[in-house]
Design goal:
Layout (H helix, E strand, L loop, with lengths): L6 E10 L5 E4 L6 E4 L7 H7 L7 E6 L13 E5 L14 E6 L2 E11 L2 E5 L9 E12 L2 H6 L11
Antiparallel strand pairs: 1-2, 1-3, 1-9, 4-9, 5-8, 6-7, 7-8
């Protein structure tokens, strides 16, 4: 069975940056399982897997425009410390849920200087090329319920 829209796909993968540093991997663990064709993977990887089948191995480099997008420097902002009510300690590297003019999202704390906190709303991999090594472990038809919900359900069904 080939990978196509509304098929459940199990993949083992390793993601590296251009320097060869491993950023993420399923090695030694369970495969990543996703519903193909509904945006559950970055677009460039999903496009590269289209038509592949169990046992195929794929190497693909995904440019930022087909990955997590280019960096947007307007998403790096200085915010008054008082905006972080209920948080006693803020440290660089912390990831926080935030509301912005673009809606809810995650931000990373970049720096804390006096009463100002610099946050970055870009995805950590924005602006980077993504290098994937992928092996297709399994492909199956999705159930009608999985297609309706837009994601894969486990062996026991769904819990939402």
């Amino acid at each position: 069975m080939h990978i196509a829209a509304h098929r459940v796909v199990h993949i083992h993968y390793t993601l590296t940056d251009d320097g060869g540093m491993v950023l993420d991997s399923s090695a030694g663990g369970d495969p990543l399982v996703y519903l193909h064709g509904v945006g559950n993977l970055v677009p460039g990887l999903e496009k590269a897997l289209e038509g592949k089948q169990r046992g195929d191995k794929v190497s693909v480099t995904v440019p930022p425009e087909e990955g997590y997008g280019p960096r947007d420097e307007s998403l790096v902002q200085q915010v008054p410390r008082r905006a972080f009510k209920g948080l006693r300690e803020l440290k660089p590297g912390m990831r926080l849920h935030a509301e912005s003019a673009h809606g809810p999202g995650l931000v990373s704390v970049v720096a804390v200087t006096g009463d100002l906190v610099t946050v970055d709303g870009n995805h950590a991999l924005a602006g980077q090329r993504l290098n994937f090594q992928v092996e297709i472990a399994q492909v199956r038809e999705a159930t009608a319920e999985e297609v309706l919900h837009g994601h894969v359900h486990g062996a026991g069904g769904h819990s939402h």
